[in-house]
Amino acid sequence: MDDRADENPPSWRSLPSWLLSQTAGHAQRLVGDGFAAVGARGYHYRLLATLAEHGPASQAALGRRSGIHLSDMVAAINELAERGQVQRAPDPSDRRRNIVSLTAEGRRQLRLLEKELAVRQEELLAPLAPGEREQLIGLLSRLLDHHDRQPGAAEEPWR
Amino acid sequence: MDDRADENPPSWRSLPSWLLSQTAGHAQRLVGDGFAAVGARGYHYRLLATLAEHGPASQAALGRRSGIHLSDMVAAINELAERGQVQRAPDPSDRRRNIVSLTAEGRRQLRLLEKELAVRQEELLAPLAPGEREQLIGLLSRLLDHHDRQPGAAEEPWR
DNA sequence: CACAAACGTTAGTACGACAAACGTTTTGAG
DNA sequence: CTCAAAACGTTTGTCGTACTAACGTTTGTG
């Protein structure tokens, strides 16, 4: 009775928002699997990468730069610290702060993660030709730019 | 010290997977806000739409068709039933089953949700010209097709 | 000095997705 | 016909990303 009735596609399957959510889901699964393969997750990569680019920083500064919510920093840094990939030391010049810095182990892990990342991006874009990949990247970048810049827009139309 | 140091973009900001996740995030926020404006969320819309397309069904069939995990159906249907948008009645011909069906109120709600959805899609794609929107939809559809069809691929390369 | 701000931390919420376990009911194979 | 397998609905809990609220500590400033 319900066996073969599922062939016609639901109406929402062609909505841009649905396509984005679904492809993003696949992307995140791919990348997440890659990270998990070396015992990490997204936050860890973002933190390690941010540290590598900007150098040691307080948790608050790190959160701002990596776009990770302050409330989530504690756990993420704890996890990295447990793995010996970052080091948390009190800032002698400001006792509110912990200065977080990359260890050699962290740098090694970052290299692994970047390698994984590259593989997974390839996998993600596999069905697209080089030109199409650039098209996609361009279109998505424009969408992202637009919505990052105009977070609220049209809250109080004109008044 | 940390004031103006955040201008250079993190390396991962141009990764396809990141672009997808972020744009999908914006999309989901937009659509989610639209749904919330009429007291619903994504699951509710998907269930109502599925019911409208395929007619009454058991929870299990509904879950398969809407792609919602069985474990999440109970709560979602409870919520819809509380709002009087669906009706849950035991199937007389199979006492394991609850037959879920749309009420007039549910149909009304679905129309509201669809209107919201259309508005939000527009908002989402605002920065793109019509031709570009089709390009994006085409590219995303191909990615989605590929990854839906090849869930695992390359698990045991060739033994 | 007093107060506001920044910092780190804890706890809780939301949403989409999934896994494991359980009792009930139906069905199919011996 | 019986008994085991399968389907169904349900509960409980987990994960990852993201966000809010509150709190104590430390700092810097009016």
TrEMBL record, chains A, B:
InterPro entries (UniProt xref): HTH_MarR-typ, MarR/SlyA-like, WH-like_DNA-bd_sf, WH_DNA-bd_sf
Coiled coil ranges: none
Domain HTH marR-type: 1-145
Gene Ontology biological-process annotations: response to stress
One Pfam family per UniProt: MarR
GO MF terms held by the record: DNA-binding transcription factor activity
Origin: domain of life: Bacteria
Protein name: MarR family transcriptional regulator
Gene that specifies this protein: marR_2
